[in-house]
Amino acid sequence: MTGADAAPGRRMTMIEAINDALDVMLARDPMVVVLGEDVGYFGGVFRATAGLQAKHGRTRVFDTPISECGIIGVAVGMGAYGLRPVPEIQFADYIYPGLDQLVSEAARLRYRSAGEFTAPMTVRSPFGGGIFGGQTHSQSPEALFTHVAGIKTVVPSTPHDAKGLLIAAIEDNDPVIFFEPKRLYNGPFNGHYDEPAVPWSRHPDSHVPEGHYRIDLGTARVVRAGEAVTVLAYGTMVHVAREVAERQGIDAEVIDLRTLVPLDIAAIERSVRKTGRCMVVHEATRTGGFGAELAALVQERCFYALEAPVERVTGFDTPYPHSLEWAYFPGPVRIGEAFDRLIAA
Amino acid sequence: MTAGNLPGLRLHVPEPRFRPGDAVDYSTLVIPPAGAQPRPDEVCAASETHPLCLDLVRVLGDDDRAHGPWNPALDVATLLRMLRLMALTRAFDARMVRAQRQGKTSFYMKSTGEEATSVATAMALAEDDMVFPSYRQQGVFLTRGYPLVDMINQILSNRADKLKGRQLPIMYSARECAIFSISGNLATQYPQAVGWAMASAIRGDTRIATAFIGEGSSAEGDFHSALTFAAVYNAPVVFHVVNNQWAISSFSGFAGAERTTFAARAIGYGIAGLRIDGNDPLAVYAAVRWAADRARANAGPTLIEHFTYRAEGHSTSDDPGQYRSAAERAEWPLGDPVDRLMRHLMALGEWDAERQAAMDAAVDGEVRAAMRAAEANGVLGHGLHHPFRTLFEDVFETLPWHLAEQNAQALHERQVKWPDWSDDADLGDAP
Questions:
Q1: A51 CB-near residues (< 8 Å, 6+ apart)
Q2: What is the tally of structural domains in chain A?
Q3: Is the peptide bond before B419 cis (omega within 30 degrees of 0)?
Q4: Which CATH class for the B46-314+323-375 domain?
Q5: With an 8 Å Cβ cutoff, is A33 touching chain B?
Q6: B183 CB near a chain A CB, below 8 Å?
C-alpha cells in the first residue's frame, strides 16, 4: 500500500481509474487531447473514455478513422505543434499498422532533430489475453517496443497504479506505450479461470485517490515481500504469480516492474541479491520476449548471488489461441513447477 | 493451367516508354495552352476543382508571357527574388555534389529542374505556416532564410552541425523556420502534417500546414491515412505531390500513373485537387496561394500535383544513365523552371543575359563562401565532430541508467584506442 491510500478517494476498477486519469489531465492541461477509434461519444469499446467527450468537448476527445498509421501519425504532428496527444489503439493487436510512425518517427524525433521536435504522446492500448479474444485480441507485444531506442513502455497492474502511471506518462515528454492488461480492467485475476471472478472492490489497491497524483516511470513496487525467491512480473502475471506463491506457501518476493523501459534495475538487484533465486514471468511468447532481457540482466549483475538458474515462465511460441487459451496461458501449474525447481535447486 | 475455355490471366508489369539509348517522343503528353484553365473561387465546393485534376494549370506560355486567370500578377521585385532563390538552389546543389565527389560527405540529393516546386511554394505561404518536407525541398529552406552555413554543416556532419551529426546529409530540421525534421522513411510526414494542422485548428490558430511527397511514395499507406484524416476533419493542410516521373529507377507507372493522374486522388477523398505545370513558377505560386487561402478560410485541404521532371539522378548514389534515356531531360516538353522565369523577366524588359550571368556568379560566390565557413568546422570522417557523449543525448529527455552505462563504455573504448584523448577535444582537433 502507498501513502496515497490515506488521501480522499474511492474504490475503482482499473477502467474507472484510467478514465479518471484522463479526466484529470484533460481538465489540468488544455494541450491534452484524446483520440482513437470509438473513444468519443460512445466512450470506447472498454468504456475507458466514457463521458469524457461530453465533459471536455468534441475537439478534445474524438473518434478517428480506422487507421492506426493515421492515428499515430497525426499524434506525432500534434506533438510537434505542442499538444500532448493520448491516442488509443483499440487493441494492442492492431498497433502494427502504426509501427513505422512509432518506431521510425515518434521514438526517433527528439534524437534526429537534436531536440528541436519531440513526440510527447502516450499511446494507450488494451493488451494481453484471458478474455477469449483469440489471436487478434489477446497479444502482448511489449517486447517489440522495449527493443526500440526512444520509447518508454509501461504496464500497470492495479487501479491505483494505472491512474498514477497514466498521469506520469501523459506528463512525460517522451513517447510512452501504455499497455493496459484487459483481463484486469474489471477485477484482479489470479490465474484460476475456473474459479469465480473477484471484483476490484475487494482488493486494497482499488482505492484510488482523488485528483492528480503521479507514480514516477521507472519505479517498481514490491507487492509481496519474501526471502526465498524473487518474482519479476508485470500486468496480469503479478496477480497470478502472487496467488501461486500464497497457495504453495512459498516465501516469494513479488516485484511488479510497472515500467519496462526505463527499468528499475536497483529494485531487481536488491531483491535477487537477497533471495538468490529469480523467476521472470510474462504472458507474451517466449523467444525474444522481455523475460529474456530480464534473465540476462539478472545473470550479468547478480550471478554470484544466484543459487539456481533463472526460471523463465512465459506463454508458448504460438499465436494466441481461442479455444485452447488456458493451455497457452502461463498459469498456476507452469508457475508452480518453476517455483518448485527454484526452491529445490 | 487454364480451366475450360477461359483465357489465362496475364500480369501487367509497367515498363517506361524510353530506356537508355532510346529516342524520346513526348507527343502523346497532353500539354494544354497556358491560361486556358479556369480558376474557381478559393472556397468553392471541392468538386468544382475536380476537372482541374485531369488538366494542367499553366501560366507561363511559349511566348514567355503570363496568361489567364491563374496569373498571380507578381511585381518585378518578387519575380526577381523568385529567380534568385531558384538560381541559389541550383548553385547550392551543384556545389554540394562537388563536395560529395571530393569525399567531404557521404551523400547528396539535387533538386535540379524542380526548384519551382519548393521555392514558389514557400513564397506563396505565410512565413510561419508549417512545412513538412520530403528530402528534395532545399528550396524551401533557402526561401525561408535558413543559413547556408547551417545547411552545409549538416551535410558535412561536422562539429557545428545543429543535428549533432546524427542524420544522413540533407535530412535537415529547422524549427525556427517552421520546417519539420526530415525523415528518411518516406511518406511519414504526410499524416504528421495533418496532425499539426488539426492541432492548429483545435487551438483556434491561424497557421496552416503543408506537406511534400514524391509521386513514388504516394503509394505508401501513410498517403491514404493522411488524405482520409484531412478529409474527415477538414484539416487546414495543403498536400503537394511532386511528380518528377522517377522514383530512383522506377517510373511513375509503378505508383499508378498509367491509370490516372496523382491529382485525381483528390476526387476519391472529396477534397480539392489541382494538377499544375511544376516547371512554371507562376503556376506553382498561384496554385499554392489558392490552396493556402482555401485552408485558411476553413474551406478544406487541397492536393496539388506538381507535374515536373527530375533532371538529375535520384541521389549521388545512382546513375540515371543506367535506367532511362538521356534524351528525356533535353526533350522534356515543359522546359526548365529557372530558364522559363528568366525568359519571362527578359520578355518583360526587366532582365538580360548580362544581369543573369552576374546573378549566377553572385549566388555561386555566396555558396562558396558558406562552404569555406562550414569546412572550417570539419568534414565528414575527419575528426571534427560532436563529443562522444552526444551519442547518448536526446534518446530520452533525461539519461536512463542503461544509457549512462553504455555512455561510459563508449568513452572507455575511445580511451583504449587513444589513451591521451578527452571527449571535449573533438570540438577542437583530436585524432
A1: A19, A23, A43
A2: 2
A3: no
A4: alpha beta
A5: yes
A6: yes
Residues A300 and A163 placed together within one structural domain of the fold: no
Q: What is the chain B residue with the closest CA to A57?
A: B202
Residue B288 C-alpha cell reads as 499554392
Interface contact A69-B193, CB threshold 8 A: no
**Which residues on chain A are in Cβ contact (under 8 Å) with B198?**
74, 77-78
All structural domains of chain B with their residue ranges = 46-314+323-375, 388-431
Is A207 marked active-site?
Answer: no
Q: Is B21 exposed, middle or buried (0-12, 13-18, 19+ CB in 10 A)?
A: exposed
> Domain span at residue A16?
4-191+197-207
Q: Which chain A residues in 248-267 lie under 8 Å from chain B, judged by CB atoms?
A: 261-263, 265
Same domain, A285 and A327: yes
Angle at A219 between CA A213 and CA A220, to 5 degrees: 115
The DSSP bridge partners found for residue B306 are B242, B276
CB–CB contact B191 A77 (8 Å): yes
Same domain, A156 and A235: no
CATH of the domain at A304: 3.40.50.920
Question: SS3 helix, strand, coil % of chain B, rounded to 5?
Answer: 45, 10, 50
Is A212 contained in some domain? no
Which residues face A312 on adjacent strands?
A280
Answer yes or no: are the C-beta atoms of B332 and B245 closer than 8 Å. no
How many angstroms separate the CA of residue B133 from the nearest CA in chain A?
Answer: 13
Check if A300 contacts B (Cβ < 8 Å).
Answer: no
User: Which one is catalytic: A137, A160, A239, A282?
Assistant: A137
pLDDT per position in chain A (345 positions), as tens? 444 555 799 999 999 999 999 999 999 999 999 999 999 999 999 999 999 999 999 999 999 999 999 999 999 999 999 999 999 999 999 999 999 999 999 999 999 999 999 999 999 999 999 999 999 999 999 999 999 999 999 999 999 999 999 999 999 999 999 999 999 999 999 999 999 999 999 999 999 999 999 999 999 999 999 999 999 999 999 999 999 999 999 999 999 999 999 999 999 999 999 999 999 999 999 999 999 999 999 999 999 999 999 999 999 999 999 999 999 999 999 999 999 999 998
Alpha helices (runs of H) in B125-209, residue ranges in sequence order:
138-143, 148-156, 189-202
